[in-house]
User: Fold these one by one.
Assistant:
Number 1:
Amino acid sequence: MPRLENRIVLISGGASGIGAATARLVAREGGKAVLADRDEARGRALAAELGAAAHFIALDVTQEPSWKAAVAATVAAFGGVHGLLNAAGVGVRNDIETCTLEEYRRVNDINALGTFLGCKSVIAAMREAGGGSIVNISSVLGLRGAAQAMAYSASKGAVRTLTKSVALHCAQMKYNIRCNSVHPGYIDTPMIAPRLDQNVGNMTGRQALEEMHPLGRLGRPEEVAAMILFLLSDESTFSTGSEFVCDGGLTA
Ligand SMILES: NC(=O)c1ccc[n+]([C@@H]2O[C@H](COP(=O)([O-])OP(=O)(O)OC[C@H]3O[C@@H](n4cnc5c(N)ncnc54)[C@H](O)[C@@H]3O)[C@@H](O)[C@H]2O)c1
């Protein structure tokens, strides 16, 4: 029995990394994936590969009209929306002294405000569909601080508590909409690629990051997608407002 049969899932950041791996899994499990991303070339290529199970829509998560258009396009393409994955994000290294106001705003606009707009924009259509599941990607750096990723960590902490507030509101309103956050460790995607070849002491960046995880390696996007699939599916119907960590033991 497919785990997402006839479920329609809107995926911000669906063109790459964790969002793309989730889109493949949604299609494999009998669902429809709407890939929403600012990277049109990669998004259209993946949608073409997935065929009738996928649709691409250009989205800038920082713009409310763009979100409204993405939800409307999802309903027009497949007839409704049951799932939302907020996976669009940027990773930036900075500390409290070097980060400019402009950079702090940019990171928080994409990672935190973009997730807020995604949740806000999808609720009415999800209610129309009888309910649904929202999954917001935070990070292990949404659970703790990071001297060298200050703005990123602040944005991911906001995603963590935004998720709980959305979950509580939807529960109080009896919308049958759940909302949970996922907290990956370092996952081998284009986001962290620039760090892997940089030298850290006598190690490559990849070796240094691998050593941070007790399992001794980076995570794969498919491993995070498997956790997201669980949260999108009816296997997780008693989970809302919760944090799901996928980090090879990093925070243990
Ligand atoms: N890779 C990791 O180690 C890691 C760890 C923890 C959390 N995360 C989080 O997982 C999520 C997915 O990251 P990934 O590793 O797959 O990265 P990725 O770079 O492969 O994918 C991110 C996608 O977001 C899109 N995007 C960026 N800004 C956008 C905007 N304004 N509007 C629409 N789309 C936009 C990009 O075009 C890209 O397709 C992010 O939120 C990231 O912060 C990643």
Note: Residues 192-218 form one domain.
Number 2:
Amino acid sequence: MINVTPVSDVMGAEITEINLANPISLDLKVVLQKALLKYQVLVIRKQNLTPDLQVKFSSIWGKLETPSNIEYTTKESSKVMILSNEINPDGSAVGVVDGGDFWHSDSSHIEIPSMVTILQSIKNPEKGGDTEFCNMVEVYNSLPETLKIKIENLYGIHHVSKVKNKRVTISPDRPGAKDFYESQAKTRPSVLQPLVLKHPETGQKSLYCSPRFTIGIKGMTEDEADPILERLFAPITDRNRPYHYRHKYKNNDLVLWDNRCVCHRAVGGYGLPDIRRMHRTVIAGTGAYNLQQTSPTQ
Ligand SMILES: [Fe+2]
């Protein structure tokens, strides 16, 4: 029988006594799915899955996204993205250098954002490399009723480019990053997402916006939107981390989270020769939240 133990008072559970390399029964699948809905973040220790097995495990949550950058996927599976700071002998990067240092929910800048993200820790640095998570249901619950009413039917404007966002900075360590974000600013559209997202499975409301991707509010000037956004971001970035869980990886940890109710950020704090390598799979969302939220049938 598997063990599910909460890792903090506000979110996250650790699962032990499980080997995901074995076939996953329907019962186990249901237990894992329910655990993710309840705890939002799952930490499954000691797995060591091959890329193919990681894909197989991931697919219990739905259809996998295909990473846009095929160059940094594993040889075994094009669905598994390598996140790493390693450099090949020829000077090329082994994988995507994981940014994610500002609070965000994965892919909220596209029409149908990522649903679940799964990271398997292959190699951890001696120091740093943690991921912080924020429970966005609790963040929503913490807001004053007047603010909840005010944002109930508002839409955040999300954009992927950092040059469109005054709340983030571009790392000087990334060669060509400024050109990259400037090109994105011209070619990628803004996307509207509801500020209050009703979870399609649990029905719980959460705050769905982030300092990394939310750059404005539909129908408001910057001066009108800014104080609201600052107030909404405050509990996420609160130095006391009241609604948060910080995960320190061990090798072979498999960590997954529900992007519909969780924001996260990479803490960083490591560098070569210390290596961090993760294998990431992502489950695609099943529909656009803005359509779900505004449909007259719901
Ligand atoms: Fe992320």
Note: The domain at 3-294 is CATH 3.60.130.10 (Double-stranded beta-helix).
